Amino acid sequence: MSRAIVVHQTGGPEVLTLEDRAPGAPGPGQVALRQTAIGLNFIDTYQRSGLYPMQTPFVAGNEGAGVITAIGEGVTGLTVGERVAYQGQIGAYAEERLIAADRVVPIPKGIDDRVAAAIMLKGLTAYYLLFKTWAVARGETILWHAAAGGTGLIATQWAKALGATVIGTAGSAEKVALAKAHGCDHAINYAEEDFAARVREITGGRGVDVVYDGVGKATFDKSLDCLRPRGLMVSFGNASGVVAIPDITVLSRKGSLYITRPTGVHYLATREELLEGAELLFAAVKSGAIKVEIGRTFALNEAADAHRALEGRETTGSVVLLP
């Protein structure tokens, strides 16, 4: 019998319940995994709380790494014993699970399972934001909020490797120092400074080409003030609450701005897109362009504590659950 973290009703971290749950045998197009590491992400908290509606009960979690233990009918290109990783597939908080074979990717030699679990969702988010949503080019200037978080630390290093000038924000002196050590040319403590005014100062009044904002409600309005005319606002998360735009003409008043709300469901929809992103991500890690920061690890049965730490902004880098 395997153990898993199940949500029977949405709510606070206390609704995460450890239960015995047999995964069963893989069906057509599926593989069975014995998981070795599980990534923790803000989307997990959104699903648990009900912000993102889910049909209950469900096993929490969206990314992980493990070893294939069985293969279902019709699956090709994968073998029992192979190490694989995945993202965007609900059901990760478990010792064992079934998963669609076309949504897992082989983990290359030289990449540890914990690293793979820590970077799949966050790293592939950084990939489509930096390469597809706005193709960051050498010489451009970007602003990344929560630069000391799991996605931020990956993305700012990657953007720097692409030749961008990277401005990051963080909420403490410790996090500012971490952001500076991971690709940020400038790091702003938004708890002490007006980040919009500081960005204008850094850019000589021009503004940045693109803002990447996973924080949401608390930073959205001032982020618009950071953009150059016809710049792009990329809102990709809701850590501080959901963004609303009651008056869309604000975009014209602030410089004919563009805004988008991307998601991996659409940017990584096909296996080809998934493999392309994973190949670039793993290559960047192996080359040293991205150094992965695993801030904390928790046992699977401590998932509620992990959620409290993440939502309380007590973490830096990636957080990993260990089955």
UniProtKB/TrEMBL annotation:
GO molecular function: mRNA 3'-UTR AU-rich region binding; NADPH binding; quinone reductase (NADPH) activity; zinc ion binding
Source taxon at top rank: Bacteria
Protein name: Quinone oxidoreductase
Cellular-component GO terms for this entry: cytosol
Keyword line: NADP, Oxidoreductase
Domain Enoyl reductase (ER) span(s) in chain numbering: 11-321
Lineage: Bacteria, Pseudomonadati, Pseudomonadota, Alphaproteobacteria, Hyphomicrobiales
PROSITE patterns: QOR_ZETA_CRYSTAL (PS01162)
InterPro entries: ADH-like_C, ADH-like_N, ER, GroES-like_sf, NAD(P)-bd_dom_sf, QOR-like, Quin_OxRdtase/zeta-crystal_CS
Record Pfam families: ADH_N, ADH_zinc_N
